[in-house]
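STRUCTURE:
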């Protein structure tokens, strides 16, 4: 018997493969495909996360340590349904960051809870923004603790559009509002922010060249970003330290983002 028939016997929708496919599209594979296909799809997603964790660990891969079972549970529960590359990269990074010599170190659970609460769009903008913050302010003598209100960044709409890689049926304007407001609400950026037309942004940043957004980093936002990069024990403050060396961003982003406070 097909798994969906076995699970959904007597149920009007879950018991109907045709209706389920119409509702879920390809995601119905997780529910209505053959069991071996379901397991394979989940295993591929998890394997992708573990591959990323291995790469981020680098030489630390052979060092002693353990990952908290609580962290692993979150990775297994959520990661098997994770198909977006940026989300997978964050999960792989937190998995790598969580390898510790201290058995009870489960700080990754808090970071994963935040990541879980974000949409793909919000997490992609988070990655874009903190990649830019790192590129502009790393090694420039700033402190995220005391100077963050002087570290706002202007991201032109063209940079945002390229990084978000929208398809023909997505709504960039509505998604921008959803993404920025979500990051603010989660404490991943400071409440000093703005988005909209060139004229509107010029009230804050006279050098704005086109519509876009302006955001200010937070310590917690940088912490989540660095854990997603596999930085063990990161507090967020390290994002501006010259000793921190991150690989090039995995997003294809053209130059154009500018510091608001020179």
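SEQUENCE:
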């Amino acid at each position: 018997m097909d798994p969906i028939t076995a699970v959904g016997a007597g149920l009007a929708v879950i018991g109907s493969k045709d209706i389920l496919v119409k509702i879920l599209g390809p995601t119905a594979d997780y529910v209505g495909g053959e069991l071996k296909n379901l397991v394979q799809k989940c295993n591929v997603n998890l394997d992708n996360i573990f591959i990323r964790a291995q790469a981020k660990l680098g030489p630390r891969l052979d060092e002693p340590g353990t990952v908290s079972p609580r962290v692993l549970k979150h990775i297994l529960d959520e990661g098997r349904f994770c198909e977006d590359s940026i989300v997978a990269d964050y999960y792989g990074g937190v998995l790598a960051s969580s390898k510790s010599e201290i058995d009870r170190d489960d700080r990754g659970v808090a970071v994963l809870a935040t990541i879980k609460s974000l949409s793909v769009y919000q997490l992609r903008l988070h990655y874009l923004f903190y990649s830019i913050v790192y590129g502009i302010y790393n090694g420039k003598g700033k402190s995220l603790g005391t100077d963050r209100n002087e570290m706002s960044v202007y991201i032109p709409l063209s940079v945002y559009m390229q990084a978000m890689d929208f398809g023909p049926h997505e709504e960039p304007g509505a998604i921008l509002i959803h993404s920025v407001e979500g990051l603010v609400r989660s404490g991943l950026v400071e409440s000093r922010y703005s988005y909209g037309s060139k004229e509107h942004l010029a009230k804050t940043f006279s050098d704005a060249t086109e519509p876009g957004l302006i955001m200010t980093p937070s310590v917690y936002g940088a912490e989540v970003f660095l854990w997603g990069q596999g930085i063990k024990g990161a507090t967020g403050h390290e994002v501006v330290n010259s000793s921190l060396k991150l690989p090039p961003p995995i997003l294809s982003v053209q130059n154009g983002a500018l510091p608001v406070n020179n």
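REMARK: The two ends are 67 Å apart (CA to CA).
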